[in-house]
Amino acid sequence: VSLFLALALGFLLSAVVFMWFEPFYIGIILGVALFLTIVASLLLGLIVPYLFQKLGKDPAIVTGPIGTIIRDILSLVIYFSVASFMIRLF
């Protein structure tokens, strides 16, 4: 479900950006970055509680703040990585 949601939102964002902005590659960059960010958030939502459970900590208490911080940082890294890679292509 999350992969379908990521694909749909990435495509929708790309379509909206295609209509509003002149360079077409901006829509591609934003759509791919959103897709990868949602997929990364899904994986972090699975991995972080599992790791804290293995460490003997309560995953329900720790996952919220730590997961949010990691997701925010990873979202920025993904966006800038995708943008710098795709700008070189275009």
What are its keywords?
90 residues, mainly alpha, 3 helices
Overview of the molecule:
With 90 residues, the chain is mostly helical. The chain is 89% helix and 0% strand. The protein is built from 3 helices and no strands. α1 (2-20) runs antiparallel to α2 and α2 runs antiparallel to α3 (59-89). The relative contact order is 0.14. The mean pLDDT is 91.
Topology:
Elements lengths: L1 H19 L4 H30 L4 H31 L1
Helix pairs in contact: 1-2, 2-3
* Beta-strand content bin: under 5%
Summed up, the helix count is 3
- Quick one: biggest sheet? none
What's the average pLDDT?
91
Q: Spans of 5+ residues with little confidence (pLDDT < 50)?
A: none
The helix content is over 70%
- Number of strand segments: 0
Termini gap: 32 Å
Shape: elongated
Rg (CA only): 16 Å
Order of helices and strands: HHH
Class derived from helix and strand content:
mainly alpha
